[in-house]
Specification:
Strand order of the largest sheet: 14-33-32-31-15-27-30-29-28
Shape: elongated
Largest sheet: 9 strands, mixed
Number of strands: 33
Radius of gyration: 37 Å
Structural class: alpha+beta
Strand content: 15-25%
Oligomer: single chain
Low-confidence stretches: 1-10, 18-28, 470-492
Number of helices: 40
Mean pLDDT: 82
Length: 1200
């Protein structure tokens, strides 16, 4: 507790150079002057009831991301259903079935429509309920709210109101946008993590107004009253304008005083704040967009097919009506068709009769358009989603979180993705760095290899096996070149943040190194050059470090392991326990902290000025190597060449690097500089930052190089492998992050989106350009950069050259304008990887929209925070990362997974399967309905276009609903062209989806043609067989009921045989359902025929007495079924033999067990089955192998 109190009294503001200094009281800015629209917000602090009344009536803190509510569900869900063209047609047909012109009874048309629409709406309701329950998890979070008399009570977030004073505790999220009043630190400083808003994990420092600092405990709010006047709700996360009226004084409010909803309090035991914006008025929710209504590409194309079939329907209906009119006009009236009162048949008015017959024909031929298609697809998608949810390989054991298909409408879209747009923080990274290697005084330390080095060695070892088989020379030399020594070290438990192995530096052995003084300086820079705060771990008793970046944490852990443990920090000193070989106990040394020049993205370095126990003043500096090398003195470059060489090797190995340097200062030199620095630090004019930058730059010159560090950026488990597999599958990956450019680039290297040797195109606008140039001038400059970059990409002749586009948020604002966005998109598409940094949530959504609309291809957005909601909703498919902090991304997503690595299986396995299943299922549906529906048309032509159906009403009702539905559902649920393991081993199979090989017009019309052929065979073979010849043993000929039933039986056999030929993967379920469908037809035929003739009509005992005893019936079934399926069998035989698809080759290899017997061939096929890519782990390994082979070639040439 004592440690906690001491830490709480530490004034953090004095540790920072930029952004946190509080100017003197007499120099505080004047209140903001604003008026007019956009600045009407009026908040009475500690008086929430005031805002419930009109005219204010501010939004409550209840949030909802659902698509429907109780009132809107019925109209919106019905609209969604009748957006489908087929449903509109069947609604019209159901209405017409109530009229006398209908050839069917009304129930046969209305019942299927109600069933289909009702089932689809029920599914929508269930999915919407799940979204509602996840909203309630957020709404029911608890926070301490002031209820009066200095008493704070826990309330759900949804009960928090504008004007409420709330107390937020450490590691809790802010429930609304708050004005920061005070904190547990006496100078009103608090740390905030904004990962959910902008993706950054570096902690932000917020400061309260000095006037509210006395409000530091619960009782002080008993009589607290104040007024806030500020801007209206808006989506801008980085600006805020307002005034705070308190004690008859008005104080200006800016961004540092605002705590935004869904950011998290860190390193501070508690803060007090007053609610300004609540619920959907908060800035994070203002950045969100309404839940969109998404439809898959296949479903949109299905509408076009429905239009084609509807055109065919109208065409044959017109032919029927014209034929009926001609027949009526030219023939004498049929004696058995008397003139009826409705004049549906009137021989004296053939034209009118023809038009009336058109309506009859439109209903009669309606079976060309399958009403059960939609409900079957809905059912299949729900079952597919269930398999996704139950996939044990996408279950995260650490968080006990499974994958979840939050909507099943887009399953097949997972198999058609072209571009992935990913957030960085929390999605790709787990924000952990491991200290792996270092270079000190020109000597390299650290024997463990990075993941990239190990992968390159493994790949080369596999290549060596192939080379040895073919007897290629220099195999042993390659082996020596690639595998130079131990890489894995001992198997003891690793220390988090420290993977370094080298006995020369461990256990005090550094003291024996020839350059021990340089090593000592390096280790002290590790332990002293930072802004971290040490905390005692209550469980272990050891120290943990609250660092602003993961790099700092890794450096401090490394310093501790080397024997230099940073243990305490006060206002003016840093304490380090140093272990020296000369003493058994560690020595605690105090270093006075004189100044801290903190890191900014512009400076790319940080420095501390300290005074050691001998009185020596030192500047210790760490930063990007390019920055540090430019600042070295002539005498401080002793190790420059060796260090540069080591840095290049580290970069090739995918490691993040920093250079270390120092400078000894004379007291007079330092004190003269410090006087000017303090003046600049307390200045309040507009040049303050420029003055601080100039003075910092002046001090950080004439440095002496010490060495460099190499840390491995720990991505989330499996991220590099996942990105590599997705790249091999032909997917493009963009990273959209709110982080600064340097961090984004480093992550790009860590996950292999960038690699050493890749040409980086940075499109930026500097501050001077924005200040001095007009918008037109800035846009011209950006256009020139884009044009030059595009030319460079097009003129590049090296086939292995790869380009990476990196752009920041300010530049992106201009690049997304109408006159620039197409040029920007064309450049981005030509680059191997794209990284957009410092982007706002709105910009993420706009970039996603640009890619989606500009390329016309399927996009997938993946993220984990509230800042990703916009792009998740804008993309064709939105994937939320669950199991990390915040649930906003999950609530807005279509699919949720616990870690990024599961995206590989979600797309490459489930996406591939779902696409092919749905595509084959829809094509088969249209095939079987054309095969069935056109037989009605042919019979019409044979019967004078009379409108008479050859089939009984119950036959047609059961055809789609029972007799052919179950096998096609099993196709959509269980079909696998290859197993999940093969999908992952052969990622190029995924490209069948983006290229739409199974649902293009060629294949669709092919299936329609197959249906047309089948209908012709079924009808005309049956007519030829049964027409004008004896059917039964007593010489009777077949009547219409017999022909219709025989024809229908042939259709059932033909289409079920066809689906058996279509399937690649059989289980007992498919076998059972196909046989069950045929048996069900016979069971129905027997039972229906046994009913009274009043109910069964012409089919009374037709099977038992007429069909079953007749051999010609059974022979006709065999003949027709074989004849219908022969062309398809010939087609697939020819294709597999002469023009096989990728999965055909794999199926054949597995059938002949070559994957087991000939592993060399199997590995060769695997290497061919990946898309050529310039990003990912494999591309980096390939580049490393090319580099090693070039070195070997040079070595061989020199030897020769």
């Amino acid at each position: 507790m004592a440690h906690g109190r001491m830490r709480a009294r530490l004034k953090r503001s004095s540790l920072y150079t930029f952004g946190c200094i509080r100017p003197p009281r007499e120099s505080i800015d004047e209140p903001h002057q604003f008026q007019g629209p956009g600045f009407s917000r009026h908040v009475c602090c500690n008086e929430p009831g005031f805002h419930r009344k009109k005219p204010l009536k501010y939004s409550s803190n209840y949030i909802s991301t659902t698509k429907y509510n109780v009132i809107t569900f019925l109209p919106k869900a019905l609209f969604e259903q009748f957006r489908r063209v087929a449903n509109l047609y069947f609604l019209l047909a159901a209405a017409l079935s109530l009229t006398p012109v209908s050839p069917f009874s009304p129930y046969s048309m209305i019942a299927p429509l109600v069933f289909v629409i009702g089932l689809s709406m029920t599914k929508e309701a269930v999915e919407n309920w799940h979204r509602f329950m996840q909203d309630m998890k957020v709404n029911m979070r608890k926070v301490l709210v002031h209820t009066g008399n200095g008493v704070f009570v826990r309330k759900p977030w949804m009960k928090v109101e504008v004007g409420d004073v709330v107390k937020v505790e450490k590691d809790r999220f802010f429930p609304a946008d708050l004005l920061f009043l005070s904190s547990s630190y006496e100078d009103g400083i608090c740390y905030v993590e904004t990962m959910n808003l902008d993706g950054e994990t570096n902690l932000k420092v917020k400061r309260s107004l000095e006037v509210t600092l006395p409000l530091d405990d619960d009782s002080s709010f008993q009589d607290f009253k104040a007024t806030i006047k500020c801007e209206d709700p808006n989506p801008n996360l980085y600006t805020f304008v307002g005034n705070f009226e308190y004690d008859r004084q008005i104080y200006p409010l800016d961004t540092p005083q605002i705590l935004l909803r869904d950011s998290k309090l860190r390193n501070t035991s508690h803060v007090y704040g007053v609610v300004i914006f609540s619920g959907h008025d908060s800035k994070v929710m203002q950045n969100a967009t309404k839940s969109p209504s998404k439809r898959s590409t296949i479903e949109k194309q299905m509408d076009k097919i429905i239009y084609v079939l509807f055109t065919l329907l109208v065409l044959i209906s017109l032919i029927s009506s014209i034929g009926f009119a001609i027949k009526t006009s030219k023939q004498k009236p049929f004696w058995y068709l008397p003139r009826d009162e409705q004049r549906l048949y009137d021989p004296t008015r053939p034209f009118t009769s023809g038009w009336i017959h058109l309506i009859t024909a439109l209903i009669l031929y309606g079976y060309l358009i399958p009403i059960s298609l939609y409900v079957s697809i809905e059912l299949v998608k729900v079952l597919q989603a269930l398999f996704i949810n139950q996939d044990i390989n996408m279950y995260d054991e650490d968080t006990c979180t499974p994958a979840q298909a939050r909507t099943s409408n887009l399953n097949e879209e997972l198999g058609m993705v072209d571009t992935i747009l990913s957030d960085k923080t929390g999605t790709l990274t787990c924000n952990q760095m491991d200290f792996l290697k270092c270079s000190i005084g020109g000597t390299q330390y650290g024997i463990r290899s990075s993941e990239v080095e190990l992968a390159a060695a493994n790949q080369m070892a596999m290549d060596l096996q192939d080379l040895s088989r073919s007897g290629t020379r220099h195999g042993s030399e390659i082996e020596l070149e690639v595998l130079p020594g131990p890489t894995s070290g001992s198997s003891k438990n690793r220390i988090k943040g420290f993977s370094f192995e080298d006995i020369r530096l461990m256990n005090g052995n550094w003291y024996r190194e020839p350059n021990a003084d340089v090593v000592l300086m390096f280790l002290r820079i590790l332990a002293l050059c930072h802004t971290a705060i040490p905390e005692v771990n209550e469980l272990t008793g050891g120290l943990t470090y609250e660092a602003e970046s993961p790099d700092e944490g890794a450096f401090l852990v490394a310093a501790r392991e080397f024997g230099f443990e940073y243990c305490k920090r006060t206002q003016s000193s840093i304490f380090v326990r140093e272990k020296h070989p000369s003493s058994h106990e560690p020595i605690e040394r105090e270093f006075k902290l004189l100044n801290l020049l903190d890191f900014t993205s512009k400076r790319k370095r940080m420095s501390v000025i300290i005074q050691d126990e001998t009185g020596q003043i030192l500047l210790l500096c760490k930063g990007a190597d390019s920055i540090i090398f430019d600042r070295l003195s002539k005498t401080g470059r002793s190790f420059e060449e060796a260090t540069k060489k080591h840095l290049n090797e580290y970069a090739e190995a995918g490691l993040r690097t920093l250079a270390f340097a120092y400078k000894k200062l004379e007291p007079s030199e330092y004190y003269n500089w410090n006087d000017e620095f303090l003046k600049a630090k307390t200045s309040i004019n507009g040049d303050r930052d420029a003055m601080l930058e100039r003075l910092s730059d002046m001090m950080e010159r004439e440095l002496t190089l010490v060495g460099a560090t190499a840390v491995e950026d720990k991505l989330q488990q499996g991220v590099p492998q996942c990105i590599d597999k997705l790249a091999q599958a032909g997917l493009k990956i963009w990273v959209l992050t709110g982080d600064k450019m340097e961090t984004a680039i480093n992550i790009g290297f860590a996950c292999s989106l960038l690699r050493h040797g890749m040409k980086q195109i940075c499109i930026t606008t500097n501050g001077d350009m924005l200040t001095h140039n007009s918008n037109m001038g800035v846009k011209e400059n950006i256009l020139m950069q884009i044009t030059n970059a595009s030319q460079m990409v097009k003129l590049e002749k090296d086939p292995h050259a790869a380009f990476a586009l990196i752009i920041d948020g300010k530049t992106l604002t201009y690049a997304l304008e109408d006159d620039l966005k197409l040029q920007f998109l064309n450049l981005a598409v030509d680059c191997a990887s794209v990284i957009c940094c410092r982007v706002s949530p709105k910009q993420k959504a706009l970039v996603t929209r640009l890619v989606k609309e500009g390329t016309g291809k399927t996009t997938l957005a993946i993220g984990d925070g509230a800042n990703d909601v916009g792009m998740i909703q804008e993309a064709d498919i939105g994937v939320g990362i669950s199991g990390v902090e915040g649930m906003q991304a999950v609530m807005a997503s279509d699919f949720s997974i616990a870690q990024f690595r599961f995206l590989e299986r979600l797309l490459v396995v489930h996406g591939h399967w779902c696409y092919k299943r749905i595509a084959q299922m829809i094509c088969y549906f249209f095939y079987k309905n054309i095969a069935f529906g056109l037989t009605l048309f042919y019979f019409e032509a044979f019967t004078g276009f009379s409108g008479q159906s050859v089939y009984d009403d119950w036959y047609m009702l059961l055809f789609n609903v029972v007799l052919t539905s179950l096998p096609v559902i099993s196709l959509g649920v269980f079909e696998q062209d290859v197993s999940s393991e093969i999908c992952l081993q052969f990622p190029a199979l995924y490209q069948q989806g983006p290229r739409n090989l199974f649902f293009d017009w060629y294949r669709i019309f092919g299936w329609m043609g197959n249906g047309l052929y089948c209908s012709l065979i079924v009808f005309f073979l049956n007519i030829i067989i049964f027409y004008d010849q004896a059917f039964r043993s007593d010489g009777q000929t077949a009547d219409m009921a017999v022909v219709g039933t025989a024809m229908f039986t042939c259709v059932i056999y033909s289409v079920n045989t066809q689906i058996a030929l279509t399937m690649s993967h059989f289980t007992w379920i498919q076998h059972f359902l196909i046989i069950f469908s045929i048996i069900t037809w016979y069971i129905f035929l027997v039972l229906y025929g046994m009913l009274s003739p009043d109910l069964s009509g012409n089919v009374y005992k037709i099977f038992l007495e007429a069909l079953a005893p007749a051999p010609i019936y059974w022979l006709s079934i065999l003949l027709v079924a074989v004849a219908c399926n022969l062309p398809y069998l010939a087609h697939i035989s020819f294709q597999r033999s002469f023009n096989p698809m990728d999965h055909h080759v794999i199926q054949e290899i597995q059938y002949y067990k070559k994957d087991v017997e000939d592993r060399h061939m199997w590995r060769r096929e695997k290497s061919k089955a990946r898309q050529e890519t310039k990003i990912g782990f494999s591309a980096r390994v390939d580049a490393k192998i090319r580099h090693l082979r070039q070195k070997l070639h040079k070595k061989s040439s020199t030897a020769t």
